[in-house]
Design a protein that fits this description.
InterPro entries: HTH_MarR-typ, WH-like_DNA-bd_sf, WH_DNA-bd_sf. By secondary structure, the protein is of the alpha+beta class. About 40% of the residues lie in helices and about 25% in strands.
Length: about 110
């Protein structure tokens, strides 16, 4: 909700009650939001031109398709001795123990 609040405060999105079901909110992008989205798309395109410039259009399409299939959920992966876990508030934190059993950084 915090992101939606920021978008709404910035005039980029509008939230209103669904007339068919007052428990639900409907979110719509504003004209300013659409303009900002267009600017972001252009900036991303510009940023991608250089690193992907050596690839053909077909190779770029293939790469994007492969990257879209990569699912990254930090709660499901371990990195060395550290495991990323969900905390009670829904966020993630790293934690673990060294092989000697000592807590590192005070995170469990």
């Amino acid at each position: 909700m915090a992101i939606l609040n920021e978008l709404e405060d910035g005039g980029l999105a509008e939230r209103r009650r669904d007339p068919a079901d007052r428990r639900r909110h409907m979110v719509e992008i504003t004209e300013a939001g659409a303009a900002a989205l267009g600017w972001v798309d252009a900036a991303v395109g510009e940023a991608e031109r250089e690193p992907f410039g050596g690839l053909t259009e077909a190779e770029q399409t293939l790469l994007r398709g492969l990257l879209d299939r990569v699912v990254v959920n930090p709660a499901d992966h371990e990195c060395g001795e550290w495991k990323v876990r969900r905390n009670k508030s829904g966020g993630t934190k790293s934690g673990g123990t060294k092989s000697g059993g000592t807590k590192r950084g005070g995170i469990r």
